[in-house]
Amino acid sequence: MSRVLIFRHVPFEGAGMLEDVLRRRGIAADYADLYRDGAAAPDAGRYQGLVFMGGPMSVNDNLAYLRLEEGLIRNAVTAGVPVLGICLGAQLIAQALGGNVRRNPAREIGWFDIRCTPEATADPLFGGMGTETVFHWHGETFDLPPGAVLLASSELCANQAFRAGDRAWGIQFHLEVTPEMIADWCLQDQNCGDVRELSSPLDPYRNSERLRELSHEVFGAWCGLLQQVD
After folding, report:
1. Active site residues per annotation
2. How many whole angstroms separate alpha carbon 20 and alpha carbon 45?
3. For the domain that residue 81 is a member of, what is the CATH number?
4. Residue 36: which domain range?
């Protein structure tokens, strides 16, 4: 059985709909919570895939566990192990592979369109996608690492998704969120500053049905790569 290691950076940013896709595919998942005091470094070599979730911190913060995760990303990419990063996780992949992470000109919090690039047409995960309304929650962005392929952009943020090599993807937006997760994020103390800046309340259900379809398509394709590693 394939097994995935999911790196969580705060308790409330779990894998969401990705967990459902993994379960349907018969793929087991463990969480690594390296942000917790005393957390031991996992044996990432036991897993067929690595996932790096979001979080309210910056990749540029002086946090030892983020540097450890960047090392694990480089090792996995070198070994051809499938890697997936979402929001902060995408920024970690970009920086680990030579890109820079910096403040985006504007915060993107809520439902915004992304547009897939022509190069996305042949991508194993994004092929067939065009313009879609997806959920965002970020104030930083990244430069593409050397050799990476840009897969999606938005009006407020040029680099929304990329592929590095054949088996590593960074996704700035949140395909994994459920309406319940969005509602919960709005109540978290660590997000209260972002919430106060919103001009109107977020509607967790605005495009949730289509987001669920997209999550099953994209995450399902990524899971197919895991089964090739077995």
Report:
1. 87, 174, 176
2. 24
3. 3.40.50.880
4. 3-229
